[in-house]
Design a protein that fits this description.
single chain; 450 residues; alpha/beta; Rossmann fold; 2 domains; six-stranded parallel beta sheet; 17 helices; 49% helix; 17% strand; globular
Length: 450
């Protein structure tokens, strides 16, 4: 969650954005945990100075945090792991980027490790769960002080093959992998990312691997692949929330015969521009659908302190304008509208360049009430689970995406119902609680390793 102030000066608490915050919210509510996070807003920093129970916000130095977040975590590591760099031109490991690593990413990780160690002082038996690409170094710092601590790390974004990591200088790529292998368990959403990580450890660190066990520097680490789920009960409640119902009435009042939906952050990895081009190409090929089909694009502004993200929003807006009233583009943070649109879509387009999982591909079909069809990128982690019931697309093939959208729009009612019911059943059976149980089972497994 994030803290702020309203016009009257009262503190506000908003729903955390992004897939990680969404996914972990239900898990935190089901277990006794202490959440340690970086303060991001000015009000977060005020809260960080207060007596905190359950959630500990760490107020990093502003300059260090800016280097950590806006130069290294995003975009550098994010771009490496989603394979977004234009390698003929970017990135440059100049003084700015080296300084951001040394005086941003490293000290922020060190301070988070110290906060973790303070909690372990209070409860030495506690298990530590690190989350995502922001904290690759913290496990090694904790391990250095607490050799017997039980540490797990879940990486929620893709893990590319070893060659992609040569974008990072040798010492830095070594520290990233060694930091992760300081954990007892490293988890990913898919077997694909799991395999790539194991291979990277072998190729870059010279580690040895035996199945899902990686050995390096005298330690063994279990590497697993468990896709996270949603919290069905939360979405069941949200479907009936008055704010959602009000927005659904707005959508119903203006919707065409068929609605193509995308719900994303304004992140280059989400591939919004190609999706808009594919929709426009589909209309060019099938002019009889003009006026009968519209795309509703609900985009949450993302990382607007980073130039690459600002440029991408501008590209999205240009592409949407070129399609005229065939596209209804909304850029803003309005989760209630997203849930309302989930209920109403006929086609849900998820064409990510790469994605660790993509919760929209689970949330949307679960909430939908029209037997909507999922068009899903083969490079989204969720494709490993849902691909057999989706219309699969290559995220770079705009022509094939156009055909896939048309296929989804014209699919028979019987086939639509079969696919929609299969996805809903899978999502309900593999919820966030089941994912949490698998994380605990992994810890039990490493405790029993000789």
């Amino acid at each position: 969650m994030s803290y702020g102030r309203d016009a009257g000066g009262e503190r506000t608490v908003s729903r955390g954005g992004g897939g990680l915050a969404t996914a972990l919210r239900g898990l935190v509510e089901q277990h006794d945990v202490t959440w340690i996070a970086n303060a991001m807003t000015d009000e977060d920093r005020v809260v960080a100075d207060e007596d905190q129970r359950g959630t500990i916000l760490i107020a990093q130095g502003r300059d260090a945090y800016a280097r950590f977040y806006n130069v290294i975590a995003n975009p550098t590591l994010w771009f490496v792991q989603h394979m977004l760099w234009d390698l003929a031109r970017t990135p440059d490991w100049d003084n700015t980027r080296h300084d951001a690593w040394t005086n941003g990413y490293v000290p922020v990780n060190l301070r988070m490790a110290r906060a973790t160690l303070a909690e372990l002082d209070r409860d030495p038996s506690a298990a530590v769960f690190f989350q995502d690409y922001h904290l690759y170094l913290a496990p090694a710092f904790v391990r250095g002080e607490r050799p017997d601590a039980l540490l797990a790390h879940f990486v929620h974004i893709p893990w590319p093959e070893a060659d992609a990591w040569t974008v990072l200088p040798p010492a830095i790529r070594h520290d990233v992998l060694a930091g992760l292998l300081a954990n007892d368990v490293v988890g990913f959403h898919t077997r694909r990312w799991q395999r790539n990580f194991v291979r990277s450890c072998v190729d870059i660190l010279g580690a040895t691997a035996d199945g899902d066990i990686v050995e390096h520097d005298g330690r063994r680490t279990l590497v697993t692949g468990h896709p996270i789920g949603i919290d069905p009960s939360e979405l069941d409640e949200l479907k009936q929330d008055e704010n959602v119902l009000a927005r659904e009435r707005e959508i119903e009042a203006s919707r065409p015969d068929q609605l193509v939906l995308r719900v994303d952050r304004t992140d280059p990895s989400k591939n919004v521009v190609r999706g808009l081009r594919a929709f426009g190409l589909m209309l060019d090929r099938h002019p009889e659908l003009r006026g009968r089909v519209r795309m509703l694009a609900l985009l949450d502004p993302s990382r607007q302190d980073i130039p690459e993200y600002v440029d991408y929003v501008a590209a999205v807006e240009r592409e949407a304008r070129s399609l005229g009233d065939a596209v209804d583009l909304r850029v803003g943070d309005d989760f209630a509208r997203s849930v309302a649109a989930y209920k109403q879509f006929d086609v849900l387009l998820v064409n990510a360049v790469f994605d660790g999982l993509n919760l929209v591909s689970k949330e949307g079909p679960y909430v939908n009430e029209r037997d909507g069809v999922l068009v899903l990128s083969e490079n989204a982690g969720a494709h490993e689970e849902l691909g057999e019931w989706a219309v699969s697309v290559n995220p770079f093939d705009v022509s094939a995406q156009a055909d896939a959208i048309h296929e989804a729009l014209t699919m028979s009612a019987t086939e639509r119902r079969h696919r929609a019911e299969a996805i809903r059943a899978h999502v309900r059976a593999h919820d966030v609680g089941a994912w949490g149980d698998m994380q605990l089972a992994d810890l039990d497994r490493v405790r029993s390793l000789p």
